[in-house]
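Give me structure tokens for this 200-residue protein.
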Amino acid sequence: MAVNRDPILKKCRALDISPAVLGYSENKKSKRNPGGNRRKKVSEYGSQLKEKQKLKFVYGVLEKQFRHYYEHATKEEGIAGENLIRLLESRLDNIVFRMGMATTRREARQLVSHGHFCVNGKRVDIPSYRVKVGDVISLRDKSKKSKKFEEIAETAGGRLVPMWLDVNKEAASAKVTRAFQREDLDFEIAEHLIIELYSK
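Here you go.
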């Protein structure tokens, strides 16, 4: 399986993303060559490519899978760009990150792969599993005793939970109460540029 091993802070700086979006400290910023990423003019293609790379990087999705999400988004009713983000937000690893059960999305993906979480009481170890409205995501009983999750609760417990998730911290669970909406997103992205790029 392909793994994205790009340095986090370097990539964040190149794509103009706050490290906090990925679960890293705001203070942890690279000081190397601060003006090295500035250019006088960016082409239309360059702008479109940057937005695509930004969205792929935030959610940890590689090209083949991202293209699949795009094709799915264009077939659904509504605005394709918003559909694309909604599909990415509905991934199980993203939900685990959003509910504060992982410090970063990379860690959430690993924890899901190791089978620590259940959806509606059934163990799921597929990070890309699509969670739907009404689903309940919970930490397995065996995993609740792990020191790892005690540490995560201390570091990620204060993260702002999105309005579409109802989190029960004591039970280490969350319920998806409604569908994700564009205004729920906590970072800047021009998703229409991504649709334009793929539409060429």
